[in-house]
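Sample pair:
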Amino acid sequence: MEAAALMDAHVQLKRIYNALNEALDLTRQLADAVDRDDQISTHMLISMRQEPTDRLAQAYQALDQQRQALPAADADRLAAILKGGEAETPEEAPLVSQAGVNRRVLRQLVDLDQVVNRKLAREKSIYK
């Protein structure tokens, strides 16, 4: 894969990382507000999570468009990296590392979101 394609993908992964971290921070604050039974803060924080969620969607869409614009072999390689594949060249290492960090932050976010959702929605939780 060309250096420019790797760099473009890495930029999107950094944007995703930043949005994930912001969403994780807001979700931690939301968990605290729920534990305090602070309904005003809870509503405010739920609303505030929309912005990083929107940025996440935009970055994922841009990354997917970049992948689709690549030659087939490069598109397949990028898809493999994003799914957790190992670096095949030293140039891929930063991208592979960032993809791994993003997966870990996303896992933390999903785990915390499940806890918060179950506390708020109880039996109506989207997580079963």
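The helical segments are 3-36, 39-48, 50-69, 72-82, 93-121.
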